[in-house]
Amino acid sequence: MYKTLIAIILIIMMCGMSSAEQVEEWPFGQRNVMPDYIEGVMYDFEEGSNCGDFDNQYPEIATFLTVLGTQPYGTSDWPSYVTVGGSTCGNTRCYMRIYPWCGYYPNGTPHEYVFVVNGRSAFSPMTGPDVMGGFIPGMKTHIVFKEDTRYVSFLATTSGNMYVTLYDKRGNRIHSEKITVTILRDGTKPSNFTQFSYHSDVDIVSMKISGPFNGNHLDDLIIGGAPGYLPDQPTDYSWAAERLKLLIGAPHNPNGFGYEFISGTFYPAEDIVSNPLVVNWDYENKEWITGEGINNEGAIIWALNRDANIINNLCINDMESKDFKVHVEYGDQQPGDVAFIEYDITATDEGSLGYDEIIMFIEPQIDPDTGMAEDCIRILEDGGVHYADSEFIHALYGTDIGIIPTSLFTVKRMPDEPKGNKKSPYPNIPGKFI
Fold it and tell me: Core-most of 41, 82, 282, 373, by most CB within 10 Å?
């Protein structure tokens, strides 16, 4: 009996034990892998630039801190990147030997070492300015994790000993480990990574890393925990924003809905954009007409009702109150969200009551011809379906604090689980016209 009890206790202890692992010679080009039992994120650092600001991909998961006064080359180490073909900034020109950089000495002999990154960039601290006014690779990194973090893993490429230390919420050391040099290579072949991973039975609050000059490089950083670790995210409607992009260039058509009433199917994007033989229904005159183009409400419905009638209302005001039920602060919008705009709320004539326009937000982009920012799609009488800058629109119609508003700019989102298929937003066509 006692032996059985001891065995059970040992099994329970083993299941709760922390575990660390290093995989040396992790092949160049092979991405880090998140275990099936971990829910988390992976930083790929692909937005990096040697001369750009650090862009935290998941600020709700981790905070990358500046480490003050760590070395004689500069005043502090702060988060930055190494990039294929790049150098750090300023007068100091510190070029990174990163594969596939050829790496040859003047006599034609290949350099015996080379760093690697997956993709184009990896993480590395940067320090400066030095006495020459330049910025050079740093030596220390400090990352703080959100609560419930139990798993950390990354791929390392280093020119010397890299030391990794993990801490709990009291600042006590959970685990320390040394990663040895990884950058030696055979001929002109790329070197390999070392994969580091640690699964803890207590919360990992922070990680500190120190390494040699120009040797503290991380890629594919995985941070996670048990199922439920990630914050709840709203349903992703970015697919609707991508679908709406297909209508860019279509003219405005007050009777265009992008919908074939007889068959109950949507017209292809190319027909809406440029086919003058598309058949539409003129509600006011109760007759069939032809012509390319689409109206504002019709474009939004065409984008979102691709697979089901998740929008059930054709009237813009009903759409705002009954379909898009989630309020969103401007600035917190995501692709697929919309903004309802009322140009003049002081107007009293019947034709101007309620909202006048809907825009849909897209992933921000830059117009390559004009250099202008674009983060939404508008459908206007004089511009058809086109890209636009929501900041400009919000400046015109958004409400300013302390000023009596004369217009409305209301950002809304579809609910996470729209009822869908309750009804088609389009009214039935009288039988005599079919």
Answer: 82
Listed residues 200, 225, 250: the one ending a domain: 225
**pTM value surpassing 0.85:** no
pLDDT at 3: 41
Strand partners, 121: 83
230 part of a folded domain: no
Which of 225, 250, 276 delimits the end of a domain?
A: 225
Shared domain for 153 and 289, answered yes or no, is no
Burial class (CB in 10 A: 0-12, 13-18, 19+), 6: exposed
- Kindly state whether residue 13 falls inside one of the protein's structural domains: no
Do 136 and 264 fall into the same domain? no
B/e letters for 264-303, b = 16+ CB within 10 Å, e = fewer, are eebbebebbbeeeebebbeeeeeeeeeebbbbbbbbbbbb
In a domain, 413, yes or no: yes
Positions in the chain short of pLDDT 70 = 1-17, 51-52, 69-74, 86-95, 102-103, 129-134, 214, 348-353, 399-404, 420-422, 431, 434
Q: Which domain holds residue 248?
A: 238-433
Residues 368 and 256 both lie in one domain: yes
Query: Are 219 and 315 found together in one domain?
Result: no
pLDDT tens, residue by residue, 293-335: 999 999 999 999 999 999 999 999 999 999 999 999 998 899 9
The SS3 call for residue 60 is coil
Give the tokens for residue 207.
């990680």
The pLDDT assigned to 102 comes to: 64
Q: H or E element: which one contains 238?
A: helix 238-245
Is 12 among the domain residues? Answer: no
Q: What is the pLDDT of residue 212?
A: 82
pLDDT tens figures, 360-415: 999 999 998 888 999 999 999 999 999 999 999 999 998 654 456 788 999 999 99
Q: Rounded CA gap, 149 and 152, in Å?
A: 8
